[in-house]
Specification:
By secondary structure, this protein is an all-alpha fold. The two termini are about 20 Å apart. It has seven helices and no strands. The protein is globular, with a radius of gyration of 17 Å.
């Protein structure tokens, strides 16, 4: 009954559930990105072409993750129940693309960051000033994700074997992960 009372107590325009879903999915996404880079670096090591750029991007993703972990704690948002799955899937995607070569690893980054840019822009449009703190974090992280995309292209992402198919599959996977993580 308390749950029904809580729903009745919410006023029209209350965005707490929507904001919680944003934080949950962004936390999971940054966690998954860090795991992708961890998988790539585990396979490529520190001497492969592009590995220094990947290590730098991984550090930035960790900073994003740290911010979302703090938001989860301070705002009482339930993290996704799928985090163990995203841990394995992210690492496996990173390792698999690294096994295909440095350009495929960069193709993975380009594909993921394309979807994250779209996702973050949709969130910023939805927030439209209603949560300045969250919107500022998202804008900051979106700018870094665009840098990651540019870095991936500069390191030959589009020259990876089967780039159009690889990119399409990874982008579809990202969209599916975002959709399911909002709810679970």
């Amino acid at each position: 009954m308390a749950r029904a009372e809580t729903k009745l107590a919410r006023l029209p325009g209350d965005t707490r559930e929507s904001t919680a879903a944003m934080i949950r999915v962004d936390h999971a996404g940054e966690f998954g990105a860090a795991r992708i880079y961890a998988g790539q670096l585990a396979v490529m090591g520190s001497r492969a072409p592009g590995s220094a750029a990947i290590a730098r991007m991984k550090q930035q993703e960790q900073r994003h993750l740290d911010v979302f972990e703090q938001l989860i704690r301070t705002r009482g948002v339930r993290p996704t129940l799928l985090q163990p799955l995203w841990s394995v899937a992210g690492f496996a995607l990173g390792a698999a693309t690294a096994l295909m070569g440095p350009k495929a690893a960069m193709a993975c980054t380009a594909a993921v960051e394309t979807e994250i840019d779209i996702h973050y822009q949709q969130q910023r449009d939805e927030l439209a000033g209603t949560d300045p703190e969250l919107e500022a974090h998202i804008a900051d992280f979106q700018a870094e994700e665009l840098e990651h995309h540019a870095t991936a292209l500069a390191h030959g992402a589009e020259d990876a074997a089967g780039y159009p198919l690889l990119s399409a599959v990874i982008r579809a996977g990202c969209r599916a992960a975002i959709a399911v993580t909002k709810r679970i």
